[in-house]
Amino acid sequence: MADKIKIRRDKKRKKPNFHRQEYTRRPAFTDGWRAPKGIRSKMRLGKKSKPRVPSCGYGSPNEVKGFHPCGKPEVLVRCEGDLVNVNDNVVVRLARRLGKKKKLEFMKKIGEKIRILNPVKDKSKPVKKK
Q: By the number of CB atoms within 10 A of the CB, which of 26, 78, 97, 110 ranks highest?
């Protein structure tokens, strides 16, 4: 498994930054990828001196898709039912739609043995009532 993660890391280092066609000519085209669609587009045809286009060859090995760079699979926790899948050989990511109260509750249930990728700091302050 570790060798597959090293292969993925090496592949991602070699992967070029994919840019939209003619991004150097037009300032509005600087960010974001759009596939070239022109009928005579040299970039779409994959000509030699033109920018690269994303393809399946740049992807990760199937065995390590969805794995965190530390080598363990990620589990997204959205509700209490998702805590069933949590064990020592996974890392946990708490869903962004959860509130602070629920995140703190889940962190207590998960414990300190399992790594949480986006922990919440407990800065509980007394709420001022008007």
A: 110
Same domain, 70 and 93: yes
CA terminus-to-terminus distance, the chain = 57
> Taking 90 as the threshold, does the pLDDT of residue 94 lie above it?
yes
Residue 79 near residue 103 (C-beta atoms within 8 A): no
Q: What's the pTM?
A: 0.66
Number of separate domains in the chain: 2
**Residue range(s) defining the domain that contains residue 97:** 66-110
64 contacts 31 by C-beta, under 8 angstroms: no
Measured between alpha carbons, how far is 43 from 99 in angstroms, rounded to an integer?
45
